[in-house]
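Before the break, one more example. Copy the sequence into your notebook; we will annotate it together after we see the structure.
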Amino acid sequence: MSAEEVLALLDRPPLRADKAHTRWQRRSGAHALLTWLAGFPGESWQERWEASPAALGPEGWAREGHAWLGAVANVRWNSAQSGLLCLAVADVLRLPLAWQFRYRTSNLRPLVERTRDPEGFARLEAAVDPKRWASTGGGRSRLALVRIMLTKGGKLGDITAGDAFEYATELRKSGIDRAGSTLFYSWLRDLGNLPPDAPVTLRFLDRVTGQLTCEQLVDRHGVTCEPIRALLIDYLEERRPRLDYSTLDNLARALTRNFWSDLERHHPGINSLALAPEVATAWKERLRTRVQRRKRPDGTVEETVVERADRAMLFIAVRAFYLDIARWAVEEPGRWGPWAAPCPIKEAETTDRKRAKRVKAQMDQRTRERLPALEPFAQAAADHHRYRRACLDSLLSVQPGGTFHIGDAVFVRTTNGDSAAARDADGNLLHFDLAEQRAFWAWASVEFLRHTGARIEEMLEVSHHAMIQYRLPTTGEIVPLLQIAPSKTDQERVLLVSPELADVLSAIIRRVRDPHNGTIPLLAAYDYAERTWNPPAPLLFQCDRGGENSRMSGELIRRTLGEVLAFIGLTDSVGQPLAFTPHDFRRMFITDAIRSGLPPHIAQAIAGHANINTTMGYHAIYPAETIEAHRAFISRRRALRPAEEYRTPTDAEWEDFLGHFERRKLSVGTCARAYGTACIHEHACVRCSLLRPDPAQRARLAEIRDNLIARIAEAEMEGWLGEVEGLQVSLAGAEEKLRQLDRSHGQHTAVDLGIPTTRGER
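Here is what the structure looks like once it is written out:
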């Protein structure tokens, strides 16, 4: 368009202003700007704008724009500002997102909503909660939609998922990322403007990667040897159907970064799995430690060499790699046979029992410290939430700008009516609604974890559908149950809902339920282990983040537990804060259940462990508990044994028992066979390990040995080969008995124990 055609466009609806002064102001400013832009090269007004110095940023436009326009027209600066906005709204100029982020004006959003797509914004307003539409987060979302249209052109229906992602990315680059900055994307989804396969949310879109192929998993760590690279990819593809993605990712990292890439760095040109002993030994030694990097407050990085905790697990992965190839080589020699090689890792190297015992002792001590403080901590979580609720009620009881008291502190509520925030006497801004929300979820998490023993990822995946009912076939009683979705072991389990747990679940449901339709909002949560988005579900652990419902993260739960600890001030035996982690509640649940008499195999089923040894590893042992358990075991064993086994023996039974010891005497020693057992060596005593030779009969044993040697020589001379083998076994037994006597005589001497004697014997 020519300048005259553009100015005529501004005088037509919907861009035509109602007031004559406003129309003159916009027209004069737009005319001056177009006259100035006409002096720059380009086929369109957009190209001329990009060639002008104003396109470099709003800072130059605000600082020198009046001088630029003053050279071609006598126009006031506020008219020039209005002219620029009108040209942008009319799609004559398109302002980049980075330019708009640094340009401050309060007239842009209302002008675009009235003129660019009034029908689209009216339809959007009807679909959004009025309170959310007028809130601060709602205003940011509407401004986001306006900025996208000014950059890309078109109306609300023309905004794509790529446009929204570009906006979110540029917003984070600008450093002004705020709560509610991605809410506009949820609005577009609710309107149906986005395709079904569009990402669920923009909140974590730039922080998640999705699943990588086996080739990508290997190439990210740079394997130089092409045949080995192809082998690793082939091996991972073979293992992939039986592994979850997280396990596959860790396996690829162990085989590439920790194993083969390390070998290539220290042994350039290596191309065979058959490692020399010195190469394998050096690699194992390097794997013993790792470099831990920590950023100091001054920005420098501190590097410390620490012991590698997962060394045994890495050894297991590499050993399994070698053994799998060796086994597959038998089945498919053409594919795997050329790569079969001796495994450089022995089975004994895959277990670090010393470290496992040390970790077990540390975890037991941690559980023993926290189990007595569990009830006080749970009570503190409830008290903390009640305190935050009371603070929020005090704020809501006054009008915006009003003053209220909490104890001796004085607060002034902010003038923004949709925000539950206030400033203290020092001017610090405090969000009372967010504090109450965090305190509630801290209490709910503590109660849920302590009554279920669930993992934190299982807790965060509990949905409204997980609560089911079961009717007992005998009594008809309805029992509430809670389904725990598969997580670590891919094994679903069902827990009985106690009255305490039922109270917690009901409180959570009341909080997350939509007040308009009474339903729990559906959320599509991201599975960090599988790198995929789960289908939408009515998750219980969800909260409002800037107007957008979002599933809670484990990091948020851990921070809220820290706030409860700061509220109560618990300390350990050395005065340090007695911090609780979500997994501590799982250990305490298992320990308390087994101590209360629950059989370990039942505790295993409740905890969802595949191996009962894992369950017992969570169980903290107390010294007194060991003694009591052993005494209880003896009592139970006596109760279960037949009563006749504890009767007084008869004279015949007693004589038989004493006769056993009388019959132990042999020619060359004593038989140590237990009472009631038969001889398993058919009385070939020289061969028997239960024969205790008598030192006084050493000469007789030597005579037996010499006789056996002579008999062996005679048998060999006569060709009695069948008898030679048996005689040699007897000879070996006789020589071993002689060596026992020699060792006993050489290492031990008689010791006077000082046994007292009677006066008559003195």
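The radius of gyration is 41 Å. Residues 1-93 form one domain. Try to locate both features in your own notes.
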